Each structure stands twice: as structure tokens, then as C-alpha cells.
Amino acid sequence: MRIRSDSFDHEGRIPAEFAMGAPDGFGGNRNPHLAWDDVPDGTRSFALLCIDTDAPTDASLAGKEGVEIPVAHPRGDFVHWVAADISVDTRDIAAGAVSDGVAKGGKAADANSGLREGLNDYTGWFAGNADLAGDYHGYDGPYPPPNDLRVHRYFFRVFALDVPELALPASFTAADVFRAMHGHVLAEAATYGTYTLNEKAGG
Asked: Are strands 34-37 and 92-93 parallel, antiparallel or unpaired?
């Protein structure tokens, strides 16, 4: 199975159009175009994830004045998009189809998108912010710390599954999807783009 995007090149920079954060404030926060093919026989649905694998593990350093987060700082995952029960007939998602702009205070899943979308990690990140706190469903794009010296990588992963739907709670996370699809994955394809808000960030 293969996955590609018309919105960014594999291993290339993701445009600010598809990011939550931009150098001068908020970006366009549109979901990028994605398409996949060479689907294995027996596929009955798909799951989709977008994960930043370069998130600093010490969140208190993000944006801290006078501090630069070194490249060698320990990293963890930050989930930007989780969707499940995607129809077996779906082979692409148009740019801006499920996210087009920043929704402060949370964002409900689009019932008409054809995707069953879960909570991304901005839900926890903004939990203590009176202006931004809420449940963030669906896609919300890159917003790496502007004081981070590492260029972040955003992996878009699509999974072909042998079941038409996953056993998930009404409000679910990426961890719930990983547990539910265990033993049901026929194939996986991935691509990634990069993003930074630090002009001094290296590779």
C-alpha cells in the first residue's frame, strides 16, 4: 500500500496553510490532501493517524523566554489527527475537507465528513487555557514550539483493516485506535512532512 499528498512532498516542508501555528500567529489549519492505493485484498475499512514524533517531553520548555530546546532533548509523540471506520471505497481526502481554520475552544467531529474522528492531543495541551480549552476532534495541524531547535516530522499513517468498524468509545483517542485495531491490520503506508517555527532549526 502507498500513501501520498499533493499538499506537501514526502520529507518536504508542510506549508503554513496546513499548520495551526505560523510565524505571525495562527496558520490556515487546513487538513492536507492525502491519497492511497495498492490496497490489499480483504480490506474492509481504514484508520488514519497524523503524529508528530518530535514533541519535547518537557512541555514547560515550550515557548519559554530565554530558553532554546536543544535538538538532543528527549522527544515523544503528539497526535494531530485520528480517524477510524473510513469507508473501504475511500481512496483520498481533499485538502480542507475536514479542517479549514482554527477553532478556539475545541472542535466537534464533522458528522458529514465520512470519517469517524477522535480527539487529538490539543485537547490535553490546551486544557489549562481558559481561552482555548475544549475537546479538539479531527485534524489540527503543526504548532511546534518556536524556541525548538529541532525540525519536527509529521507522520501521516493509513492502516488497511480487515473489519468494517472498530470497537471504540464514543469519544476516542489514538491509543484507543491502536488497541482496537490490534490483530486487524492488513497493511500500513506512511509519509511525512516537516515543519518548524524556528529559523535556526536544523535537520
From this structure: antiparallel
Domains of the chain: 2-61+68-93+106-195 (3.90.280.10)
Q: Name, in order, each residue with C-beta under 8 angstroms of 130's C-beta and a sequence gap of 6 or more.
A: none
Task: Give per-residue pLDDT as tens, 130-179.
Answer: 888 999 999 999 999 999 999 999 999 999 999 999 999 999 999 999 99
For the whole prediction, is pTM greater than 0.70?
yes
